[in-house]
Amino acid sequence: NAGVTQTPKFQVLKTGQSMTLQCAQDMNHEYMSWYRQDPGMGLRLIHYSVGAGITDQGEVPNGYNVSRSTTEDFPLRLLSAAPSQTSVYFCASRRGTEAFFGQGTRLTVV
Amino acid sequence: AQRVTQPEKLLSVFKGAPVELKCNYSYSGSPELFWYVQYSRQRLQLLLRHISRESIKGFTADLNKGETSFHLKKPFAQEEDSAMYYCALSDGGGSNYKLTFGKGTLLTVNP
Question: Which residue of B has its CA nearest to A38?
Answer without folding.
Answer: B103
